[in-house]
Amino acid sequence: MSPVQVKKKAVILLSVIACVAPLSAQVIELGGGTSTLFQSQGGEVTVRGKGYSAATGGGMINGKFYGGAQFVKAFESASLTAGTDNVTFDLPTDIFQGGHYLTVVGLGLRKKISNADVYGFIGETSTSFNSPFFTGTSAEKPAVILFASGKVSPQWTAATRVIIPNSFRATIIHSMAYDAGDGVQFALSGGLGTGQLYFASSLSIERKKYDLKAAYIESSSQFRRANIAVPLTAEPDRDNVLFTYRPTSWASFTAGRQNYLTPIYQSSNTIRSTVNQGSASIQVLGSGLTASIFQSKYGGGENIATAYSASRSIRSRIYAQASYLVSNPENSPKTASVVGNVQENLTPRWSISQMFNTTNGQKAFGCGASFLSNLATLSANYQTFYVPARINAPFEEALIVNAQINILGRLSLNGGTFVAPDGSLLYTAGGKGTISREVATRGAVGMRSAIGDMVIRGRVVDIDGQPIMGAALLVDQLSVYTDSQGYFYVHERKPRLHPFTVLIDQFLDGSLYKVVSSPNEVRSSSNSQTETLVVVQRVIVARS
Q: What is the pLDDT of residues 197-206, one digit of tens each?
């Protein structure tokens, strides 16, 4: 039997399991939608019962059919996964950027052994295809994986990451991390990444007056954590440092330098990039003032940019912000922009906003409104965009809409519009419904008791503190997306600790992000006010 036939039979088997599982399931989730942003349409069904979950789905992405299936069985101190799995691949030295993961298709086992967490896998690494409605994968290279980490003392944690493919480009990276418990952390990582030598060291110090992050990474330009095409993730390289000093409660100063290896799409090559930055922020008479300067080098080009901004809240109902931005790229014209934004909260549910932008004499205006309730979250902003790709008609007026509607707590409908780089208007629209059933041995079980009273609550924001709608997250094996305010929620019966991953290349706005800060694990609890905070930053990936 050929490997292709084995793959097809495995997918069919998992799909049959996912279809038969509803016979004993407590919760059934149905989801689907369409998106011109992702060039995809399709759906997925997920069932959850006592100690297991199963999912199968499929659809079209860029005119081609992709699909996937997964079955997860939980035991006392272990879980078995068959089918698609997303494996977190963060190192303790990743203090500047986390969110690394790889997609695999096969058989995996997570188990707690004494003080160690162990993950073993056999199957194939896979390319994952962006779709918010279903899991699309394409298994490519056979591999055996062993990830393990655990405490060797109260302060020291050891970890190893091993990926053995059907070639000589193996990944073997070992790590040691020290946590003094007083805000001082130190870590070392070293080994091979797809056959390329790799070494990293990091130091993090948190104090009341200052914070220091420093790391040094030595690796080849061909270094990859795993030999897969996507997700593409920029790797910190060489010297990286970020220092923040807070002499008083109303002033802070930041200086830093970061180097990255940015992968090129569908290529084994990378581009080195460097960003030097400095900023100062003060609070004066209720107003916030910030000045920043950035020097960036990327792909042989250089740019020096400055930003000045002022913001103020007026009577707790009005927030106003104005910025002056200057970009001075090498061998290109200098640009200067003035951006103003005013947001007014008319009621706790209604708010309106106005925006003004002028760049090198070209003006743009926008206005919008948002509505928030338990039933629906709606926002609409009418904006004028300047599209450089359209030489003859560069201005594009578009209504940017984001909506989420909840019906009876069981059906959620969401949608949004986006403007593409060529000026065309793209959209994403989908829905997800949940059905709970009675369990004969326990009598009638309502929606709340079927899902559980424990909750994981979190929020995703950018480096300016603004919420990110449609951020893709993975809580253990459960995919969740944030709402218009950046929040996400997961309910379950018992308090548990789960692996937590930010799926940086699957955000619904179509952009690629890097993780500034995020926990590797989250725990559910009865306290719904306990919040997990994730901070991300938008990045640009070169495409050949």
A: 999 999 999 9
